[in-house]
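name: query_chain
kind: protein
chains: 1
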Amino acid sequence: MENAQLISLSRQMALQRQMDVVANNMANINTSGFKAENILFEEYVMPVARNRDFQRLDQPLSYVQDWTTVHDLSAGAMVQTGNELDVALSGNGFFAIETPAGERWSKSGSFQINANGTLVDLNGNAVLGEGGPIQFGPEETGILIAADGSISTSQGPKGRLRLVEFADPQELTREGSNLFAGGTPVAATGTRTMQGFVERSNVSGVSEMAEMIRVTRAYESAASMTQRQDEMRRTAIQRLGEPNA
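structure:
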């Protein structure tokens, strides 16, 4: 009975982790450039323990293990805003962002200009160009961003956005809702910028809600099995403790 309860507990722990991921996806359904996450599960066969309730004594025990979290990097819907500081990416590339912890990568192109004239993301981190952070003077107007990321204003060229790509984006680790760290960035070759557009979150509200219901029911089923096992154990102990047992 202990083995059955431990297997059930491993399933509940994996489902709890999955529910956390689904909840985070739902919370960021309106976050521009947000990429959903999914969990991969695998069977973990206990190398030592055996279930002795069966006639054969070599029955292996299989537990549930949440193996890893994968990024769903499929494109979200492109929405035209007309804002000259909104930039969407067409392709697999990322924007390079300068943060206090070092360079990070983002799909979110909702930019703004801070009080110092620096192009920044919604969290105030500098957006990097190929020559570093991009500065604008108070007299500059008419910001234009070409498909290759080149920026120009009424005062002339301002450089080009630093766009990067990764051979294996699944190596990246998420930081917050819209930043990724790690990987080996290379200059983007198949990514184009779209000024005046933002990429919406790729989270499907309907799919995530259905997944939340499925996970909830699976958790309840596992919890019910654990409760039944506990009741069986209690009954067995009570009967063994009876004087006439």
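note: The chain has two helices and 19 strands.
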